[in-house]
């Protein structure tokens, strides 16, 4: 007996399948399988689309009882666009530093957690200072001080002739040249401020759906202010902008002050020391604001700090203007020789970054060894389950092996968190190293360009070159790359062994087929390559350990005696001297080539969909998180996407009383889970979650355990009642969720991939190994979606107190 023939049996409510795509993006037409679509809400950046024939589904629910109404949320333009957005890759160190904030281990030690956040924000502040210091090194030191002060360098640079020291013009004095060159780093600072303010207006200032106040113990992702970083980003932007302007002011003031100490008039010396004290005081204020700019997530924090922010920015601008006037004072006996004092500043900044990373490591270790204790919610101290796949009757097939890879069962247990909880400090170190490579590469390429082919610092060159510490750091890059190559070779060798070991499992999974070695190798290789994702902690550990040790050696070499590696090894044996010279030359070339390669890769990623899929997962993971540490990082697209989804689900269910299957693939599954966390309990009871190619545990649970650990995911499953996750062992990104505890398991898999080994009457053409894509073409997808919809509809009817129809009587098919 169906709902349409018995008036006493309630008709099932209208159902909606809200599709959320993953990395790489797609079009609404492809997601919905129809060339005619309409945009119901949103804009060209992100919007909700339907097929044209389903646009009025709410007015005619009787037409949509056979299957849920498909609806697509497209958000790809939040992270991609024209080729010019590839320049965001130059802000990659800022994005990496921001990631370190979110990678802290879960713990009940609130004081240590606050200290960890403050240390990450200070580390991010040093990256801003490093970037601006690099611009000062090029504009003020190499161009304004060294090249303009050398007749040989200016001779071939007509554009610099007006400021040549030997010309005797108004701009020929060193202080005035420095004041003019300061326009370059000041303009860079203004550009960073403008980009951050523009994206802040488009992302952080978008209010999420109103929710209840956070109760004690509420997961962070369920807090109403988690995706609303308006105040914190504004405060950080003011502090970083002020610190950048003060860096420029110090670069202009210190050379003039050093000259005045040699016998200038007393009033000029007093003015210089007063200005230096003002810069130091404002810098201390910027550091204080940075330390206190923690996020407020328990509610929508609309408070503003316009007074403090404006005062800090006004003070920094005034200090920069005063520094330009002070340096431009007439000093007839002043001549520019050697390098500016920026060399010592860059070295001190590098040492400070190392100290902050060491402090982060100590705090992360303390947090890691004091996890929260909650056995009922799958505490981090509890043992992880040995298997996460459901019973064979619940999966589409046994897959290649019936169990999950041990390394894929990740959560927030101490054994599953990579690098023993030191992932945040390691990523912070990578951000500092990448920042050093970019800044050093720009400085050395600029020096080579100004010197027209000669090597700065050597005999016959008019330039002393960039600070020696940058040359030392560049010289260790070939060694780090060599260690990384050895590690990669070991991983590849292990991959080959793993592929050979898997061939037997592949043939056992397709026992009824006639086996061919080439096909078996293809499937086994896909499974083995998918496991390479779990080797990332090893590669990160090798790179970070080598970078920290060799970077400390480079700073020590720059501090003890000065000079470049080639100069220091001049009196050593021929082999040592040749090796030092080769490392210095190769490192200088590599840092310059790295900058060019990064920009070229970014432009290709935004123009070529295949290249975007290759680098998209790393970029989309990095920009998923709010800008909690660095305001100049690329904007967080989830601060637009998550409120979009939560607003859509809450408004639609309140208006129609219907049910929703939230269907997320890859990164879309992460956005879907984050949106479900933001729903009120009533709406959450009307939503079922279907994820596939899901990196929630494999990537996010391992690297961000405080937010996506097993304890948090278990709580989400308990609150929603209906969740299915499809996974394959050939998928290099997704995997099982692995939620422990009683109740119906979330995971369905591993799914058989490929669905057929060879040709047959049912599969006349060769079936591809789909890996991370094509889940909707799998027969298990339709079955699980239909079962999930039936479950959420039954829950809704049971909650309303109405009579329940017989199992399967809703008339829905798999679509």
SSE order and pairing:
Elements: E1 15-20, H1 28-32, E2 37-42, E3 47-51, E4 69-74, H2 92-102, H3 110-147, H4 151-154, H5 174-181, H6 183-202, H7 230-260, H8 266-291, H9 306-327, H10 342-368, H11 423-451, H12 468-475, H13 477-509, H14 517-530, H15 536-559, H16 565-568, H17 574-607, H18 609-622, H19 638-656, E5 659-665, H20 667-677, H21 681-684, E6 687-692, H22 696-703, H23 705-708, H24 710-720, E7 723-726, E8 747-748, H25 779-800
Parallel strand pairs: 1-4, 1-5, 5-6, 6-7, 7-8
Antiparallel strand pairs: 2-3, 3-4
Helix pairs in contact: 2-3, 2-11, 3-5, 3-6, 3-7, 3-10, 3-11, 5-9, 6-7, 7-8, 7-9, 8-9, 10-11, 10-15, 11-12, 11-15, 11-17, 12-15, 12-17, 13-14, 13-15, 17-18, 19-20
Commentary on this structure:
By secondary structure, this protein is mainly alpha-helical. Among the domains are: about 15-85 and about 640-800, 3-Layer(aba) Sandwich (Rossmann fold); about 90-105 and about 115-205 and about 225-365 and about 425-450, no CATH class. It has 25 helices and 8 strands. Strands 2-3-4-1-5-6-7-8 form an 8-stranded mixed sheet, sandwiched between helices. The two termini are about 20 Å apart.
Strand line-up across the major sheet: 2-3-4-1-5-6-7-8
Helical/strand content category? mainly alpha
* Total strand segments: 8
Shape: globular
Name the quaternary structure: single chain
Q: Main beta sheet, described?
A: 8 strands, mixed
- Poorly predicted tracts of residues: 1-8, 374-398, 401-415, 801-815
Strand content: 5-15%
**Number of DSSP helices?**
25
Residues in helices, as a percent range:
40-55%
The radius of gyration is: 30 Å
Q: Whole-number average pLDDT?
A: 81
N-to-C span: 21 Å
């Amino acid at each position: 007996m169906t709902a349409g023939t018995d008036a006493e049996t309630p008709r099932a409510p209208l159902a909606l399948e809200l599709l959320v795509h993953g990395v790489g993006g797609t079009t609404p037409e492809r997601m919905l399988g129809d060339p005619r679509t309409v945009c119901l809400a949103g804009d060209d950046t992100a919007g909700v689309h339907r097929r044209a024939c389903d646009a009025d589904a709410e007015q005619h629910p009787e037409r949509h009882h056979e299957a849920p109404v498909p609806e697509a949320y497209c958000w790809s333009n939040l992270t991609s666009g024209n080729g010019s957005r590839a320049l965001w890759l130059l802000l990659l160190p800022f994005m990496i530093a921001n990631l370190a904030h979110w990678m802290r281990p879960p713990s009940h030690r609130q004081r240590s957690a606050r200290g960890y956040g403050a240390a990450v924000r200070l580390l991010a502040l040093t990256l801003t200072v490093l970037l601006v210091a690099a611009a000062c090194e090029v504009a003020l030191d190499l161009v304004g001080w060294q090249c303009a002060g050398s007749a040989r360098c200016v001779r071939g640079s007509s554009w610099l002739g007006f400021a040549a020291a030997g010309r005797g013009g108004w701009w020929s004095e060193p202080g005035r040249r420095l004041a003019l060159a300061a326009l370059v780093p000041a303009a860079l600072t203004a550009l960073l401020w403008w980009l951050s303010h523009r994206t802040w207006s488009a992302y952080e200032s978008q209010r999420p759906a109103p929710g209840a106040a956070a109760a004690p113990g509420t997961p962070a992702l369920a807090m109403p202010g988690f995706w609303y970083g308006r105040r914190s980003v504004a405060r950080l932007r003011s502090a970083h902008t002020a610190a950048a302007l003060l860096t420029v002011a110090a670069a202009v003031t210190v050379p003039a002050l050093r000259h005045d100490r040699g016998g200038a008039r007393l009033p000029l010396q007093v003015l210089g020391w007063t200005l230096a004290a003002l810069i130091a005081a404002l810098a201390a204020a910027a550091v204080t604001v940075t330390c206190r700019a923690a996020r407020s997530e328990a509610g929508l924090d609309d408070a503003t700090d316009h007074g403090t922010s404006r005062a800090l920015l006004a003070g920094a601008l005034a200090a920069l203007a005063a520094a330009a006037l002070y340096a431009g004072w007439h000093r007839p006996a002043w001549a520019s020789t050697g390098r500016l004092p920026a060399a010592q500043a860059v070295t001190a900044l590098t040492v400070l970054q190392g100290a902050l990373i060491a402090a982060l490591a100590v705090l992360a270790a303390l947090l890691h060894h004091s996890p929260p204790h909650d056995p009922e919610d799958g505490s981090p101290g509890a043992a992880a389950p040995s298997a996460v796949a459901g019973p064979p009757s619940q999966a589409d097939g046994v897959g290649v092996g019936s169990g999950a890879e041990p390394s894929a069962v990740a959560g927030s247990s101490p054994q599953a968190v990579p690098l023993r909880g030191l992932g945040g400090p390691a990523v912070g170190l990578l951000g500092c190293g990448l920042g050093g490579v970019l800044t050093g590469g720009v400085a050395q390429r600029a020096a080579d360009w100004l010197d027209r082919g000669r090597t700065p610092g050597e005999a016959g060159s008019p330039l002393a070159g960039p600070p020696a510490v940058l040359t030392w750091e560049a010289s260790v890059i070939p060694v780090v790359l060599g260690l990384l190559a050895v590690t990669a070779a070991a991983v590849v060798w292990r991959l080959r062994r793993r592929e050979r070991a898997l061939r037997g499992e592949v043939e056992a999974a397709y026992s009824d087929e006639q086996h061919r070695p080439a096909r078996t190798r293809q499937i086994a290789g896909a499974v083995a390559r998918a496991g390479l994702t779990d080797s990332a902690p090893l590669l990160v550990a090798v790179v970070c350990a080598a970078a920290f040790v060799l970077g400390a050696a480079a700073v020590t070499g720059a501090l003890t005696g000065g000079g470049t590696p080639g100069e220091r090894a001049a009196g050593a044996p021929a082999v040592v001297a040749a090796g030092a010279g080769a490392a210095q030359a190769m490192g200088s070339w590599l840092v310059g080539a790295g900058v060019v390669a990064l920009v070229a890769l970014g432009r290709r990623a935004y123009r070529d969909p295949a290249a975007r899929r290759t680098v998209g997962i790393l970029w989309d993971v990095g920009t998923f998180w709010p800008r909690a540490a660095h305001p100049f990082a690329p904007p967080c697209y989830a601060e637009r996407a998550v409120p979009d989804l939560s607003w859509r689900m809450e408004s639609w269910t309140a208006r129609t009383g219907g049910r929703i299957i939230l269907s997320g693939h890859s990164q879309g599954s992460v956005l879907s889970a984050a949106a479900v966390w933001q729903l009120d309990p009533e709406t959450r009871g009307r939503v079922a979650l279907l994820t596939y190619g899901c990196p929630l545990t494999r990537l996010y649970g391992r690297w961000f355990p405080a937010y996506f650990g097993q304890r948090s995911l278990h709580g989400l499953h308990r609150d929603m009642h209906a969740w299915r996750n499809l996974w394959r062992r050939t998928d290099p990104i997704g995997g099982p969720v692995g939620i422990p505890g009683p109740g119906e398991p979330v995971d369905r898999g591993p799914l058989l991939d490929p669905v057929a080994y060879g040709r047959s009457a049912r599969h006349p053409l060769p079936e591809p190994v789909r890996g991370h894509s094509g889940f909707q073409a799998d027969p298990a997808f339709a079955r699980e979606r239909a079962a999930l919809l039936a479950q959420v509809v039954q829950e809704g009817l049971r909650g309303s107190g109405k009579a329940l129809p017989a199992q399967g009587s809703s008339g829905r098919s798999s679509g």
